[in-house]
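Input/output pair, single chain:
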Amino acid sequence: ASMRRIKSYTGDAFNFHKKVLNAKKEGKAKTVVSDIEETIKTQFECYDTCFKEDTLQNLKAAPVTDEQKEALLNMYSFQMKPFQELLAELTTDEHNRVSKLCPNCTINNVQSLDHCIPKTEFPEFSDNPKNLMQCCMTCNGKKSKIWRTKTDRIFLNLFIDEIPNHQYLFVRGELIEETPVFSFRLEQPTEISDLFYAKIVGHYTGLDLLNRFAENSSDVIDELIFIIKSLIGNSIPADKIKNSILDAASKLQEKFGTNYWKALLYIECASNKEIYDTIISNAL
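Output:
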């Protein structure tokens, strides 16, 4: 799980909706949703097409009454078995390894499913499995109801977007009262188009990622100090320690992409002399 493309639900989305509907208790809401089955099916087909063609921003919501809207919103409940199974499927990779890291921020663990397209605007997609992405509570809370401009999506959709391996995230460290402090920034590389870069900026700004990376940096430095302590404990010479840190960073980038914030933090710590010396003296 990282800021790179992740697998989406592979089954038939409408069949998933039917499974959710069958799991619902009998009652008014269930009947209301059953009665508009054809509308939902058509909308799910539109979603599939736009998902494949990366044109989700062109979707038009189904005209529904207030009663229908409420019943459709009622279809989604995170604790229900179908959604728990969906979460398990989305967070398990092809090697059967589970990754609980939130793909939107790569900081926190997954605790929820986020509606890529807000269910308030498109209640018919409240149980569409291709519209549900594993997410931490922080990201889920920061995702606004505004999700598109006239021409494009505002946030990255990691089921669709292939994140380029060109560096657009940068970190700078400085010592403030003997303590390493880090700031992150975005810069557009020539290889990334304006259109796609706008989505990257929308995503990082909307989820407040640059500040969140900075706030979580001290934990990463603590981890790094532990790593260095164990290297020193294993009698690794000082000049080899820097290489070990850079090596760890490149392994993280192989797994999580060039712009993985922790890897960039490792690189900055190894290459910024003032900070490196401070971290080494803390580890000794």
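The CA atoms of residues 118 and 145 lie 6 Å apart. The mean pLDDT is 93.
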